[in-house]
Design brief:
162 residues; mainly alpha
Length: 162
């Protein structure tokens, strides 16, 4: 009943958010141990505090939108046995958005980590690589925004992935 394309996009988005969460957790942990040369502990720097706050806001809002959209699709599938186009559009849009925001959050964690993140042994380096692989898949295509925009403008969406 739920189209495979919607299962895939929400699955990829959930994975991307998990990768971003892991990267964010790693930089939060690092911030209590790393003191860059001639500076104070990362966690005590206002710039780091602001970036962590912004990263949390991005991550949490993307997760919330994805969860709300997935719940709406599930509810329609169970109760009505039909999923309205608007709900399909919202799940695709929230999935693409979550993937794109996960890249931003992971990039923020990577940047905050400084040179610590460049080594293969760094969990943040690996998360950066993983989230970019996810974003390169069809589920993360920017063209999904075009199709959603067509719908919200009252046009017929020009994609079969909804």
């Amino acid at each position: 009943l739920i189209p495979k394309s919607l299962l895939f996009c929400s699955g990829f988005a959930t994975t991307a958010l998990g990768v971003a969460r892991s990267g964010l957790n790693a930089v939060i942990q690092l911030s209590s141990a790393k003191t860059p040369q001639e500076q104070e502990l990362l966690m005590n720097q206002p710039f780091v505090q602001r970036e962590i706050g912004q990263a949390e806001a991005l991550w949490r809002s993307a997760k919330s939108y994805l969860r709300d959209s997935a719940e709406a699709v599930w509810e329609s599938a169970v109760k009505e046995r039909v999923i309205p186009l608007e709900r399909r559009i919202n799940l695709r849009l929230s999935s693409t958005h979550a993937i794109r925001e996960a890249v931003k959050v992971t990039d923020m964690a990577y940047s905050l980590s400084g040179a610590t993140a460049i080594f293969e042994s760094s969990p943040i380096q690996r998360r950066m690589q993983d989230v970019r692989v996810i974003a390169q898949q069809i589920q993360g295509r920017m063209s999904h925004y075009d199709t959603a925009g067509q719908f919200f403008l009252g046009l017929d969406p020009q994609s079969r992935l909804f």
